[in-house]
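Why does residue order matter? Because the sequence determines the fold. Keep that principle in mind as you read this record.
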Amino acid sequence: MSPFEFAPFNLESVRLITNGCHTPAYPYKLNWQKKQFGRAFKDLLDATRTTHGINTQKYVANSCLYGFDLQAYQNNKYIELQQIGSTMISLNFNVPVPTNGLQLVVFGEFDSILALDKSRTVTTAMSI
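Structure:
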């Protein structure tokens, strides 16, 4: 029932570069006609830790999303320190994009440390 269509649009590869670190380490080699997208689909499930009701048929048809887990350590017990730097998304297509172009939707989730001292002053690692 979503008004959005997340079709593959013949995307050949997608890569995130954060402070010089490439994710995924080995770029995807997507081929939608030959149904070669398994690694991107598995990485989406791993990064979000759920299926969101998306199976491989829905993924190819209208739910082609990409997930990147940028944690250095895959552990829910630790919060990583906040980093400041640049992030770049690289998209390569097999064919030209549609005439009106495409839109990229980016969602980020961040951990934050929240502390209260004895006078109930709130301190955070990020601005609220």
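Residues 11-124 form one domain.
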